[in-house]
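Marked as duplicate of an earlier ticket. Keeping the data here for the record.
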Amino acid sequence: MHLQESGEMYLEAIYVLSKQQSAVRSIDVSEHMGFSKPSVSRAVGILKAGGYITSDRDGYLSLTDSGLEVAQKIYQRHTILTQMLIKLGVSHNTAAEDACRMEHVISDESFEAMKKFADK
C-alpha cells in the first residue's frame, strides 16, 4: 500500500506523541494535528488496513514495524530540513512549515545528499 502525504503525517504524529506520552489514542492525534475526530478515525482505519498501526481494545494506537519505519523517516526529514533552513536564516516557524511540506516530496537521493552536506 502506497501512503499518501496525509498518511505519513498521521504516522509522524503518532510517533511524536508516543515519544511524549506512554499511550496514544485517536483523540490525542486529533488534538495534536487539529483535525476532527471523524477524520482521524477514518485515517486510523486506513492505516490499520495498510498494516501501519494497530489498536488495542481500549483504543490505544501502536505503530507496527513498517509504520515505525515510515514515521521515523518522515520525522528525521522534518527535523533535519527544519534545522538546515534555520541555519540558512529562515525563521523557526517558516522553517518548520516548509520542512513539513518538503519532507513528503524530497527524494531519498536528494535528502541523503543534503544530510551529507550538512554534516560537513
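See parent ticket for discussion. Residues 65-87 form the longest helix (23 residues).
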